[in-house]
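Sequence in, structure out.
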Amino acid sequence: MNIDRKHRYDVAVSWTGNRGTGTSGYRDYGRDHRISADGRPVIEGSSDPVFRGDKTRWNPELALVAALSECHMLSYLHVCATAGVVVTGYEDDAYGIMEETDDGGGHFAEVVLRPRVTVADPAMAGKATELHEPASAKCFIASSVNFPVHHEAEVIAETRQG
């Protein structure tokens, strides 16, 4: 059986920030745009407010950090299910550090994921902590970036009400 192991992801990005004069000057255009993919809600995007963007919209930097967090979570839930670790809750307060360069560019220096995982049984906590490493190795997004993705995981056992 020949299974195609390549996957394609199509998105459309449309700039909506033309204020009537296009990019006639750095301050003359908006950074607003729309991101869409077939059958999904539109994401209203902009640049980071530091770069004259709209703080109420998603920016590429936030989207990258979110993609890393989401990918790790999904990989982690998979490896836990495979290993018999029952996760009953998962939250992450992730952050990324981007550094600007003198030439007007920049790059991410690191992303830190801070997942708080709840497991069904205290006996699962140790294994649940260990599984962040193989989950990270399986995360397609983390495997594709050229900066470190750190994990500051916390695992707690579910408290049962009496």
